[in-house]
């Protein structure tokens, strides 16, 4: 099992250019299925049939796993067995024909423009406040994932032109523009606050956003900062790690951004992932018609 799994993850890393977190998720899902097979006395993946896969999915459901979790695990197994069939000479893919459980669409959490302004105005002019303001401005101005913001290095920023480069580690880099407020907040942080956090010493730390120890802020650290500032302006009940990313996307759509451009900015591989924001453009259809049709 270990040789198949290690070769599969190498394939995903090299051919699919998946990020480390995604690779770990695939590996975890396959290992979970293998543990289930061992309980059934099955040691060889070649002996797996559709019956075992369905039984595993039912076991997950009986453990009260969400439909989204079951879907993800099925997708991981499907990718694994398709790899074995294509590259290791397996006769069949036991996941073929198994339908994914339906997922109840959750309400998209986002802030209004006024609420975003309120949140961005919250940090004070202390060293911590200047860092937090720059962080919040970048999250909203770029629509980047929290994990992507945590991974930004100082050389990835160009304040003069106004852009951030991200996604290098996944092999799918993209350039995201930054507006004037975000650039101003970043400039203040980089030249006035960041050196203090680094104790004004020569440091090899490349991370853009650092903590009090002068080390890279983690995803958990960034989420803590978001929650702390949201709570201060009574927005904590509306905040999740994706709220500012969702707000960025919704506000772009509401102001006329096209879906393809938004897909590129968000870094979605599949346009269907971006289409969840499309419903927020419906209230603009009449305005667009009136402003663009010759006989409106």
The biggest beta sheet, please? 3 strands, antiparallel
Order of helices and strands: HHHHHHHEEEHHHHHH
Number of domains: 2
Strand content: under 5%
What is the CATH superfamily label of the largest domain?
Answer: Intergrase catalytic core
- Tally of helical runs: 13
Find the count of extended strands (DSSP E, 2+ residues): 3
- How would you write the strand order of the largest sheet? 1-2-3
| Helix/strand structural class | mainly alpha
Could you explain the architecture of this structure?
The chain is 54% helix and 3% strand. The longest helix has 21 residues, at 67-87. The N and C termini lie far apart (65 Å). It folds into 2 domains: 2-87, DNA polymerase, domain 1 (Orthogonal Bundle), CATH 1.10.150.130; 113-285, hpI Integrase, Chain A, CATH 1.10.443.10. The chain is mainly alpha-helical and 296 residues long. It contains 13 helices and 3 strands; from the N terminus they run αααααααβββαααααα. A 3-stranded antiparallel β-sheet has the order 1-2-3, with no helix packed on it. It is globular. α1 packs antiparallel against α2, α3 (50-62) runs antiparallel to α4 and α6 (127-142) packs antiparallel against α8 (180-197).
């Amino acid at each position: 099992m270990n040789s198949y799994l290690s070769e599969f993850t190498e394939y995903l890393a090299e051919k699919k250019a998946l990020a480390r977190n995604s690779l770990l998720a695939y590996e975890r899902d396959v290992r979970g299925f293998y543990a289930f097979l061992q309980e059934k006395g099955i040691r060889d993946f070649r002996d797996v049939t559709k019956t075992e896969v369905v039984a595993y999915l039912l076991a997950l459901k009986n453990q009260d796993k969400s439909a989204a979790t079951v879907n993800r695990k099925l997708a991981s197994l499907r990718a694994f067995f398709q790899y074995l069939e294509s590259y290791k000479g397996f006769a069949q893919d036991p996941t073929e024909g198994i339908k994914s459980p339906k997922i109840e669409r959750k309400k998209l959490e986002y802030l209004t423009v006024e609420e975003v302004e309120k949140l961005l105005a919250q940090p004070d002019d202390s060293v911590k406040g200047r860092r937090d303001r720059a962080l919040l401005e970048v999250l909203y101005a770029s629509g980047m994932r929290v994990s992507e913001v945590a991974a930004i290095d100082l050389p990835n920023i160009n304040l003069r032109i106004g852009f951030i480069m991200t996604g290098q580690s996944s092999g799918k880099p993209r350039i995201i523009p930054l507006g004037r407020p975000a650039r101003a907040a970043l400039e203040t942080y980089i030249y006035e606050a960041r050196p203090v956090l680094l104790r004004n010493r020569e440091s090899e730390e490349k991370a853009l956003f650092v903590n009090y120890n002068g080390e890279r802020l983690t995803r958990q650290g960034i989420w803590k900062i978001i929650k702390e500032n949201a709570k201060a302006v009574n927005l904590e009940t509306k905040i999740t790690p994706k709220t500012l990313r969702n707000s960025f996307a919704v506000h772009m759509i509401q102001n006329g951004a096209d879906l393809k451009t938004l897909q590129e900015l968000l870094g979605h591989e599949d346009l269907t992932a971006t289409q969840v924001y499309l419903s927020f453009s419906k209230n603009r259809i009449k305005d667009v018609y009136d402003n663009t049709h010759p006989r409106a």
